Amino acid sequence: MSRSLKKISMLAMVSIMALTGCASANKPAADPGKSDETEFKVSAEPVTLKFYVNVTRLSPVEYNMFFVEPLKKKYPHITLEKLEGNLEKLVLGGEMPDLIFSDNDWHMPLRILDLPADLTELVAKSKLDLNKFVPETVQAIRNLDPNGKELQGIPVTRNAGALFYNKDIFDKFGVAYPKDDMLWSDVLELSRKLTRMADGVQYIGWDPRFPDHIISPYTQPFVDPKTNKALVDIPLYRKILELFQAHYDIPGIVSGKSYAYAEDVFIKDKRLAMQADWVLKILSQLLEAEEKGGAPSWDLVTNPTFEDKKGKGRHALSDMLVITKRSEHKEQAMQVIQMITSQESQMLMSKFFRIPVLNDPEIVKAFGTESPLLKDKNLAAITKYAPTPTPTPNIYDKEVQNLIRNMRAQMALNKKDINTVLRETQEAADKKIAELMKQ
Questions:
Q1: How far apart are CA 403 and CA 230, in angstroms?
Q2: Contact partners, residue 242, CB within 8 Å, separation at least 6
Q3: Worst-scoring range by mean pLDDT, 8-22, 42-56, 184-198, 202-216?
Q4: Does 78 have pLDDT greater than 70?
Q5: d(CA 104, CA 127)
Q6: Which residues form the signal peptide (predicted)?
């Protein structure tokens, strides 16, 4: 979102208050004689919860398999109504979700709209045991509150980074397959061997995707919270851009306006030998292509790192369920969360290649076992590295992130040197933040 927190929050609050008739003002005051530590009793009257998928990929099949059908069995009084469209427009139009399926990387737009409720009290009342989760997934969500007090979501599944590769291209050029625990320098060397023209086809050895993907294990913020200045022109990004520059210097990588080769080139064109990315994103697309008989012969290894982060994973990325502040059915929404984080549900999701959040070796071991398309794949690479901590988010993160990603084109197409790219991007990011702060 390009508008400032103040402007959007005010607009959202005015609209919501008008639509709800300030319902909260009509609620009776709490009885001081009653304890807050009451038993978690939820009405079994039929209720419809409005459900919105924010940015996390959730196919119709997964939605039915993981949410709709289990709810019919476990809580038949709860029905989900899936909302579609732009979230801000839905909220301002009176369509307030009760539950939002999102992730911690895209939580700030929800905070800008003042949507997430603090679930601390509901967790206590429902006796949801947070100790059963992979610790990093809960911490990633706790970190979303700058004051460190609120819990604005519950982890449902998680994501991880990995290096996917096309076995056919390696076979074609007689190059050994990638291995677990590689460094980025190892990947670069493989890319030099695999980037070549053959039979009229330009093969690309590797695509590094985005600088913020490479920086992920470092827990590096986009914005300094004390100064509201971007953190771009720093030694760490210089190190990363040196890797990008070495990549662009390989003959054949930059051709005309082509310099970035994502999943289409890897999956559809089958010209890209290696791509490091978030597992669930690429895995779902690979499996979809495989079912249609059009995917490459692929496998995966651990996400590469620099030497100083060897054995460390990308930052913790938790798919999460958020209950909205203005939901009138928070207890029923918590029942949905209880169901989806149960051992039964987590085992089901794990079997169908959703990375579980429960700290249970048997559930982790079951990952992908119900998908014959994943047979004999190096699935252990996905969870071999523990996730690293996430930095505290800032409302200007996405603006800075977009500019950081644009540094690739400045180097590859405009042939700018690293010093110039870092300086100009820093200046552009600081200018953008200053403009937004005035709105």
A1: 10
A2: 418
A3: 8-22
A4: yes
A5: 23
A6: 1-25
